[in-house]
Structure formats: structure tokens, C-alpha cells
Amino acid sequence: MKKILIVVVMGALLLMANYIFLEKNAISKNKVTEKIVQEDNYFSDETDILGRFTEIMERYESGDNNVPYSIEDSHKMIKDLNALRSYIRKTGRGEQIVSYVDQVLDNITYHIRLREYEKEEYKSFFPVNIIKEQILNSKQIMSVNSIKTRRQKTRHTKKLRKKIFELMGYSPEKSPLNSRIVEKVDCGKYIREKIIFDSEPGVSVPGYILIPKNIPLPAPAIIALHQHAGEYRFGADEVIGIAGNDPSQFYAKELAEKGYISFAIDARCFGERIGANEELIDYLGRWIGRDLLGMIIWDDIRSVDYLLTRDEVDPNRIACIGYSMGGTRATFLAALDERIKVAVVSGYVTSYKSLIENNRFHEPPSTWLSGILKYADCQDVLSLIAPRPLLIINGTEDETVPIAGTLKVYNSVKRLYKIFKAEDKLKKIIFEGSHGFPEKLHEEAYQWFDKWL
């Protein structure tokens, strides 16, 4: 709580600095004397609003980030802050700070209530615990648990795909791509073309296609889907190796050097499509029944359409690979589009319920699809890939993608591959480490493509 309050105070300091400076000058020059005093004479005409706010924060500081305020101090703090808030409202001074005072009041009240929620009679008041319990006890409408035959799997696939498109807010109908090449660069072993296509009316998607030299054509193509990492300025340019600071993300470049056509596009809010924060795009999309991940997946599906316009590409040998958010994209792309013949998913596969159990529900909106857990958990989505070749990569210490959930999903999907007698087309690589796609594992991923493409 102390950290939260410090952040609030620092924010207030930055926003209020100019205001306080001007106000103090005005008081000094004009010798203004305000005699607005609370009943207990708490404030005087010399009161510094921001200084008073900071003083209240420091007065009840516990000195230990892990030790919450006592209930007694919390109530005293609420009283002092309410007095400050009342003074601001009555005098009109320091209006900008009211929202910060309100944030702190809400936070303190939350911590008081949090202790009450520990008592049995108040447990049903706590919104977070309530919805978590509902999620963890939910039964997915389109679970694969009851599937025992290929025919059942085929029917399930058709229904679940249709439902996911509905959740995305899209239908399989497509508009003209209007594709164009805007740049060509000789990179030695391959030619890099910068391209633009329209994924829907009024929506342009920039990307790069890397075409190796001296390979027989048409050739296999691999869609390389970039990560998130909170670095919005990077996108496709990271996986093709011309930007970014993590060589483990340069897999589109590496694939081109190995003789594969590789293709990478900027997801919405990344690279050349950076703009407003992704939360805003997600909020706005919900007004028309779409969320950000759904928009991103749609663009990825249209990237397959683009590849099919290229004479260099063998339409029967298209694959995808992605790490983290790229793994999310690779999962849904392969699940929804059977033109993807092989998939490599790194740093994504785990039970969605395990994310809730491990409090990983604060992930950015570009990594989860609204409403999905009503119908399907991760294993149900991955079932849509079966029996096509699928390689899953995850770390044992990955806090973002809990390994227990990974193993649960893998075992569930493995059962479906057995139905098709295609156990050799499903593989997992579990490495010792945290969230990442170690370079030492890239070669194993590429061998998976070599085997099945």
C-alpha cells in the first residue's frame, strides 16, 4: 500500500507543481488572507494544499511495505483526508488534487474491507473472490472432454470455430486485400520486401516478406508472429531482425536464412500501427462487439490470404510460429485456419483457469479473447489444430504461463491426437527457465518445420 501511495503522491507532485508555484506567487504578491477554518482549526490561511496532502501520507507511514496500516490509523487517515477534501471544495484551492485524494480514500477503504472479507460473514461481499470462484467452478460449453470419435471431433471443430469467430466479432467473409509492395531490400541471402495489405475496409496492415535466394519455387512459407513485451515501438521489424534488443526474437530472419519464405506483420498497436494504448482500442472495439485480440487474429488470418497471392509460396505448405503474445496469435491462427499446416507455439499454452488461479488476470487485452472461457479453455482451442503438427514450448519457471496448466492442456490435447493415430504430430519441449524463447531451442522448432513441411 505504501508503494501505491508514493506513486499517487509523485503523480500529484508532477501535475500540481506548476499550479502550486503560481498560487504561492499570487498569495505572496497580493497578501491574500483567507480565514476559512475548520471546526478544529485544522487549516489556516497559510495552508499548502499539496504539502498537507503529503504530510498526511507520511504521518501514517508504517515503515514496512508488507505491513498494512492499522485499522485505527486507517480511520484517522480517512478523517484527515476527508477534512482536506472538504477544505479544497470550500475554498476552490487545489481542485486538481481532489482526484488523488479520492484515489487514496478508495485504496484505504479497500484495505479496511479486505480484512473484513477474511471473516466468513463477509466473504460473499468480495467481488474478486466471487468472480474467481465462478470462473474456476464453470463448465465450458464446448469442452473436448466428451469427444471420443473422429466424427465427434469434426462436429465439435465446426461449432467451436464458429463460436470463436462470433466472440472475435468477425465472420469468415473477406474484402479485397489491395496489396502493394512499397520497398525492396537485398539482404544477402534473401530479398526483403515491405508490403501493405487491407485486412478489412479502411484497415491497412504493414509487414515484411523475406524471400530466400536460390531456392526452388514455389516454396514453404512461415508466418512469424511477434511478441508483446510492453515494447509497442517494435513489431514485425523485431522478428525480421532490424529492430529490438533481443536476438531470441529474430526468428523470421533466421527462417529466411534457412531457406523458408517468412512473413511478419505488425499487430494492431505495435510497430507502425502504434498509437493510443491497447486498452483504449479494446474498450472502443467492445462498442461494436469486438476486442483487440479478435482484431489482431483477423489480421493474421488475412496474412494467409496475402501469402496465397504470391506465386513464390506453395499454398499447401504454410505454417506459423510465435512466442508469448505471438504464441497466442499462432494458437488462434492455426486453430481457426486449416491452411496453416504446421504450428509452433512458445510461451503461451496453459489452462486459462490456471491463469485465474495464479492471479494472472491482469494480462493485456491483446492476449485474451473476451468470453472465451464460457465456451472453451486452452485445450479446447488447441483441439482445433488436431491432428495437424503442433509443437508446444514452455519454461518450468514461467510465471506468466504456469507449467502445471501447460501439462494439463498438453495431456488433454494428446488424447485427441491419439483418436487420429497422430501422436507423432504433437510434441512438447519443456525447458528449465522462465518466460522466454531461448535461442538454443530455435533449431528444434525449425527441425519441426523441416519434418512436416
Sum up the structure in keywords.
single chain; 453 residues; alpha/beta; Rossmann fold; 2 domains; 9-stranded mixed β-sheet; 45% helix; 15% strand; globular; disordered N terminus
The proportion of residues in beta strands is 15-25%
Rg, Å, rounded: 27 Å
Order of the strands making up the biggest sheet? 1-2-3-5-4-6-7-8-9
Q: Could you give the count of β-strands?
A: 9
Largest sheet: 9 strands, mixed
What is the CA–CA distance across the termini? Answer: 53 Å
Structural class: alpha/beta
Tell me what the structure shows.
The protein is an alpha/beta fold and about 450 residues long. About 45% of the residues lie in helices and about 15% in strands. The protein has 16 helices and 9 strands. The protein has helices spanning about 1-30, 50-60, 70-90, 100-115, 125-135, 150-170, 235-240, 250-255, 280-285, 290-305, 325-335, 350-355, 370-375, 380, 405-420, 440-450, and strands at about 180-185, 190-200, 205-210, 220-225, 260-265, 315-325, 340-345, 390-395, 425-430. A 9-stranded mixed sheet has the order 1-2-3-5-4-6-7-8-9, with helices on both faces. Helix 2 runs antiparallel to helix 3, helix 3 runs antiparallel to helix 4 and helix 10 crosses helix 11 (about 325-335). The two termini are about 55 Å apart.
